[in-house]
């Protein structure tokens, strides 16, 4: 009896060992062929998973690359944007990055750089200098982690604070489109008196108010120089009077009921729908709204919508007529990818972010950080207006691209707090503490 | 002797694979995570040992205490809102008639829905502009009661606990129905002969028999509410201004979006400790009653 039992255990252990061996060997084989002549294995992860035009065109460039390179065994994973950051963080924790992956400008890519998970793609940019030169000024700024080395080429541009307004509602109610802060407050009161929401806001995901409103509003008060110093914690603090004043202007909007009730419990898409259906006169939102509206609303609804910039603040140090924004995410290269795989990975990056891809993305109602001409008939009328507006304005920093991840979280929640009646000074203090903590070595 | 031993050996052998899986995927990660709780770690890159600093920071963080308080509100509302309701429904519906089967399935249905769907449905019910909740209150002439249910910090925890209770009554109902149907008919007959009926029978006969089941459901309720995450993430994401943060969402929000895996590990270890304490308390409280 005992013998059978022992035998049983031995058999069980052997099966497990065999199973373990099996997986080990197949792993080796895959690596072996990557070095050999036949098939090079490449993995690419991106978040263009949706059904919108931009995602489709980016995916088509990836597919085209796979067709043109039969020697590559391409494993392309489209991961929905909501879960993308987490997925990437998870594989980063395990040091199992895909060869090529989409990264966001700002804290995400710089954390990955600091963890030594990225390698520069300068080589491919220099090889196609006509391509490199047509990127707009500042396009590589968030990806130049060391002098002369560029780690990604942006696939898009985030213009985060376009002021959309419903021209028909303004005309019908005899309200002037605001070009000064006073006119803004007048418009807010006028629309409230008529029972129309002045500004639609969907701030359930709390980055919205920060990215779309605060960045631009604060820049008009403090100027860009001050913000960069405060973010670096050099000679400026978020408790300085100018920042308190900027938060105060945000509170002014809240106190005058500029936003609809419960703005903190609906999401950005719901707010867009609320606005496009004519329930609100204005909406301050990013270029992503153009892409969303192109997919979800009719030309008829869009023809009343115009775009402009936030009005300047009297006495502010910032430049008027600017929009907060910057380079969007781009493709980065894993530091573990070497040899033949590396060469092909760089080619893949060029194929997906090169001139043709940039033009295609721009023509899918989505802004790019690249000087290209678009065919008016291919895009929505609203996008065309915004494309020309953004081309002619200067960009100022988006707050969360410069703040540490923790500080960005603090200001995001802080704005919600102000909307719930919290104190401006308290929020400024918390932001200052968080940024000081992460700026300290 | 040989039969017993042999079967014991066989049982051990048969359990081994499952036990190994459980060990590798549940037990070891728990200790692993407790270990990371002593580090300052971004999730990638180097980890720095910082002793108990994460725990110290947690105890100083007002949001942690708010999350704990919200979680305790949820535990209480689940125990009060789920177990008694499920028990009453089970007593009313435990016969296998067509009507009671229909109502039972209706009560069970939200359990089958994905929690994301439940969250979205209730998000629309509570919608500040188009929501059914406010609309109904308006129709009833209670305009002063309408509010932005999910963003008003005075009521949003309550507003969130309603769908959570609504979605979770189903399984308890089924457990109670099974327990009631397991009471043998002789006991009902004996109770009848002794002249026990109605309340009297419920309190002196039925409840004592199924008390074990009640205790189990309360334990399930406590652990379920401490793990609660998905409904809140879908409906409010822990906001606005972190006013609906629960322990699990607090852990998530202070780990993944701000790259603080060490701190998140410390928080999840804390969640384990809090649940163990609550379940032990519940065990002590209910044991005294049943003895």
UniProtKB/TrEMBL annotation, chain B:
Report membrane topology.
Answer: Multi-pass membrane protein
User: Which of UniProt's keywords are assigned here?
Assistant: Cell membrane, Membrane, Transmembrane, Transmembrane helix, Transport
Q: Where are the transmembrane segments?
A: 12-35, 72-94, 106-125, 157-181, 202-226, 261-285
PROSITE patterns noted in UniProt: ABC_TM1 (PS50928)
The ABC transmembrane type-1 domain sits at 68-282
The record ties this protein, via Gene3D superfamilies, to: MetI-like
Main location per the UniProt record = membrane
Q: Does the keyword Isomerase apply?
A: no
Please state where this protein is localized.
Answer: Cell membrane
Task: Tell me the PANTHER family matching this sequence.
Answer: ABC TRANSPORTER PERMEASE PROTEIN (PTHR30193), DIACETYLCHITOBIOSE UPTAKE SYSTEM PERMEASE PROTEIN NGCF (PTHR30193:SF41)
UniProt record similarity statement: Belongs to the binding-protein-dependent transport system permease family.
Name by which UniProt lists this protein: ABC transporter permease protein YurN
- Say which species the protein is native to: Paenibacillus cineris
Q: Which gene encodes it?
A: yurN_3
């Amino acid at each position: 009896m005992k013998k059978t039992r022992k035998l049983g255990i031995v058999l069980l252990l052997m099966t497990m060992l065999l199973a373990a061996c099996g997986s080990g060997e197949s792993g080796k084989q895959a690596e072996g062929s990557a070095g050999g002549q036949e098939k090079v294995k490449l993995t690419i992860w991106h978040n263009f998973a949706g059904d919108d035009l931009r995602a489709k065109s980016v995916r088509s460039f990836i597919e085209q690359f796979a067709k043109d390179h039969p020697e590559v065994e391409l494993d392309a994973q489209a991961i929905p944007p909501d879960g993308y950051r987490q997925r990437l963080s998870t594989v980063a924790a395990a040091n199992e990055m895909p060869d090529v992956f989409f990264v966001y400008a700002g804290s995400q890519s710089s954390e990955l750089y600091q963890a030594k998970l990225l390698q520069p793609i300068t080589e491919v940019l220099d090889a196609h200098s006509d391509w490199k030169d047509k990127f707009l000024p500042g396009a590589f700024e968030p990806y130049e982690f060391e002098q002369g080395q560029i780690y990604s080429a942006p696939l898009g541009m985030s213009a985060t604070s376009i002021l959309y307004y419903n021209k028909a509602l303004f005309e019908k109610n005899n309200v002037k489109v605001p070009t000064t802060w006073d006119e803004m407050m007048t418009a807010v009161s006028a629309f409230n008196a008529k029972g129309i929401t002045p500004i639609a806001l969907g701030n359930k995901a709390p980055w919205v108010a920060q990215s779309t409103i605060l960045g631009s509003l604060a820049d008009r008060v403090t100027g860009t120089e001050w913000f960069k110093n405060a973010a670096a914690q050099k000679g400026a603090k978020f408790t300085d009077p100018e920042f308190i004043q900027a938060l105060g202007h945000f509170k002014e909007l809240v106190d005058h009921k500029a936003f609809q009730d419960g703005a903190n419990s609906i999401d950005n898409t719901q707010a867009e729908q609320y606005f496009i259906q004519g329930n609100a006169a204005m909406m301050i939102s990013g270029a992503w709204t153009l892409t969303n509206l192109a997919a979800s609303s009719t030309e008829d609804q869009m023809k009343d919508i115009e775009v402009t910039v936030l009005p300047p603040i009297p006495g502010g140090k910032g430049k008027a007529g600017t929009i907060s924004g910057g380079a969007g995410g781009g493709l980065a290269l894993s530091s573990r990818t070497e040899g033949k795989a590396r060469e092909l990975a760089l080619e893949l990056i060029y194929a997906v972010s090169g001139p043709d891809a940039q033009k295609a993305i721009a023509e899918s109602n989505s802004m790019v950080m690249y000087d290209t001409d678009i065919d008016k008939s291919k895009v929505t009328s609203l996008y065309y207006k915004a494309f020309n507006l953004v081309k002619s304005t200067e960009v100022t920093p988006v707050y969360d691209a410069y703040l540490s991840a923790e500080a960005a979280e603090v200001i995001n929640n802080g704005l919600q707090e102000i909307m719930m009646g919290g104190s401006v000074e308290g929020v400024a203090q918390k932001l200052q503490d968080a940024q000081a903590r992460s700026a300290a070595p | 002797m040989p039969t017993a031993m042999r079967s014991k050996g066989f049982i051990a052998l048969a359990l081994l694979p499952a036990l190994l899986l459980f060990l590798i995927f549940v037990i070891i990660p728990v200790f692993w995570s407790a270990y990371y709780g002593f580090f300052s770690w971004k999730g990638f890159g180097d980890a720095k040992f910082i002793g108990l600093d994460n725990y110290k920071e947690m105890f100083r963080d007002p949001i942690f205490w708010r999350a704990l308080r919200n979680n305790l509100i949820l535990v209480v509302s689940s125990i009060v809102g789920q177990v008694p309701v499920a028990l009453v429904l089970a007593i009313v519906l435990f016969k296998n008639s067509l009507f009671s089967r229909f109502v039972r399935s209706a009560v069970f249905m939200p359990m089958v829905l994905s929690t994301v769907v439940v969250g979205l449905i209730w998000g629309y019910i509570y919608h500040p502009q188009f929501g059914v909740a406010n609309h109904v209150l308006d129709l009833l002439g209670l305009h002063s009661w309408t509010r932005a249910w999910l963003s008003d910090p005075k009521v949003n925890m309550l507003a969130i606990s309603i769908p959570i209770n609504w979605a979770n009554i189903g399984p308890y109902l089924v457990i109670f129905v099974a327990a009631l149907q397991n009471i043998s008919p002789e006991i009902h007959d004996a109770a009848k002969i002794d002249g026990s009926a109605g309340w009297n029978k419920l309190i002196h006969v039925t409840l004592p028999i199924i008390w074990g089941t009640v205790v189990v459901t309360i334990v399930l309720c406590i652990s379920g509410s401490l793990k609660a995450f998905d409904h809140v993430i879908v409906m409010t994401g822990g906001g606005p201004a972190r006013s609906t943060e629960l322990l699990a969402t607090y852990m998530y929000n202070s780990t993944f979006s701000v790259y603080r895996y060490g701190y998140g590990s410390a928080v999840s270890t804390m969640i384990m400790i809090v649940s163990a304490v609550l379940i032990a308390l519940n065990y002590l409280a209910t044991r005294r009653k049943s003895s």
